[in-house]
Sequence to fold (486 residues):
Amino acid sequence: MKKRLLLFIVLCLACVSLHASSPKYEMRAVWLTTNWGLDWPSRPVRRPADVVRQQRELVDILDRLQAMGINTVFFQARIRGEVFYASQYEPWAGVLSGGRNPGYDPLAFVVDECHKRAMECHAWLVTFPVGSNRQVKKQGRTSMVARHRSWCKPLAGEWFLDPGNPEVRSYLTDLVSEVVSKYDVDGIHLDYVRYPDDARRFPDADSFRKWGKGATSRTRWREQNITATVTAIYDEVKRLKRWVKVSSSPLGRYASLPGFPASWSCMEAVHQNPKHWLQAGKHDFIAPMMYFKEENYYPFLYDWAGACPAGSVASGIGVYRLDRANGNWSLDEIRRQIETTRQVGVGQAYFRYENLYRHTALSQWLTAWFYRYPALTPRCVGAPVRKVEAPASLQVEPLAGKSLLSWQPVDEAFTYIVYATDDSLQVDAGEQIAAVVPRTDREWILPATYRHYAVVARDRYGNESRPAVWSAPEIEIGKYEIKLYK
Fold:
């Protein structure tokens, strides 16, 4: 097996550069987990001062992610039947505030703070699981099981919404519609949009008899149920706001590959078909949970990259595996996986924030080298093409050894891309991106002076304007040339 893996990797790497430069477009995402308060919050709101503490914790997290080079945050807004926003459908999360109104709206807060940092914020929603027996009992009358018992199925001490029930599909679509309508999210990120791990024992024989007429098999019917849910959610999101991206985190392996068996895979274990969702235009990207190594990682990474549209995959990187209790992986293993994703044109998504932050050697490596230059999130395939006006009146002035850039605002801009270089200006070069600036800013200070500067406006669909360019003038005295800037 190891020899086959090495041969596979050598053949694939022969097709890519071993020293891939920093790309202009690359998803750099992190899952910010609220379930059980794993990443946030550290304590629930019990008094007004706790609101300030929770908000300060979130601001500190986002500051660290911004400094690290992350451009996308998956904020877990719905856990198992509980939410972190004001909902007409589901109760406030117990870990947030004991099930009561916390006195602020965390989803609105985190979206606003992400946008201040020119980062995308995607509402991460757990779909079909609604809690363990203990969680359901603790939630009482507000639990999904108590409110909609006919929609729920028990399995191994856990409760799940039944994907075969059309009312469940409508309910999940309504939940998503509420989030997209009320909040300025950049994406909807679906988690657990599949059947349970032990799907063979899932008690849905009655549902199959009732709603499975015409299906060739129960397995095929289940796959169609998940696809129908994804399709309904995607269509509703795009009906409301076309720029909001729809994604999910499928299992890390699509199906078994020749020589690389994988029984726990999307198609063979949990009836999800993410390749089809992408190819049918019902998903904008996926972040498969690829928390494996060696022959269980690399062949499947190349399988995703080769079968999905460019820019539509961000490999889930299991940085939690660095923990002694979760695998005790070496840092080199994680670094190799990250480097390989870039070589094959796949983005990165880290599970989860606290593990990434706590392993300082990894976060420092990302900051100092791998994410040295900012990157833009990939533009969605099929997004509408629109003209974006270039920023007007770009000026650059010296300011205490630095450069102060200023420009006129562009109405349709969501972010501004600032370029700086001493060489010829190339707006397609990731290494020339100096900053990605939020739409609220009209000026930016760079830490050093350069010969050429440019600012590009980018809208929410990823359309970019022509660059507004400024170059330092040169003064020639006799046969000597004096440059005003470095």
Confidence is low (pLDDT under 50) at residues 3-19, 477-486. The radius of gyration is 24 Å. The longest strand covers residues 72-78.
